[in-house]
Amino acid sequence: MTTILVTGGTGTLGRLVAERLRADGHEVRVLSRHSRPYAVDLREGGEGLDAAVAGVDTIVHCATSPKGDEQAAANLIRAARGAGVAHFVYISIVGVDRVPFRYYQSKLAVERLVGESGLGWTVLRATQFHDLLVMMLQSLSKLPVLFLPAGVRDQPVEVAEVADRLAGLAAGAPAGRVADMGGPEVRTLESLARAYLKAAGRRRAVVKVPLWGAAYRGFRDGGHLTPGRAIGTGSFEEYLGRRFGGGQVREGSGRSRA
């Protein structure tokens, strides 16, 4: 039986990865800032991290944060080397080497740390999860008008499918950079936003706004897409159906249509 440590194991992806690995008979340790007995802030490292990785065969690194990912990865890699971990699996994002977005640049830097770690490693890049896209649209729709960056498309993927792929990779041998994983369709942000509004029962005008900057150009040019690897099967509408059901209005009374 393999002992596998899942960082970020209480998050959207990490929780599902841990469940799948346990179902396959592996001993799974969940590391997060607040999950006992392995409550560790990876950005700080320390004795708690060393204890968490002791005796571990494989690490699946799902933990991420808007700031501090590089330091967290460096601390985790140091502990992994000290513990003799055989396999380090990292989940990254499609386009981190093509879109000069700050968070993407941090993910790319972590990929490099993993590749230069001296450990056996595997890196999987996936497109954005349905959950994250809905979180963004919920935030944008707080105003009476939903503003979207003009000319941008997306290729959202079902997080459960990414978890299945990641768990399978963790159970195997180090494979280096594996093929990207994208959702089943490349869609305009407008079409995705209108699908969300309909499912959530919200009325909003949708306005496309041209932006500026290198990161925007990268997204507009599709650097974050992988149409040749559209291997996910779960659609955005299927996800919305599970999440919102019949689209009951949650603001005011009665029903609404997009």
UniProtKB/TrEMBL annotation:
It comes from the Bacteria. Residues 8-131 form the NAD(P)-binding domain. SUPFAM superfamilies: NAD(P)-binding Rossmann-fold domains (SSF51735). InterPro entries: Ergot_Alk_Oxidoreductase, NAD(P)-bd_dom, NAD(P)-bd_dom_sf. Pfam families: NAD_binding_10. This is NAD(P)H-binding protein.
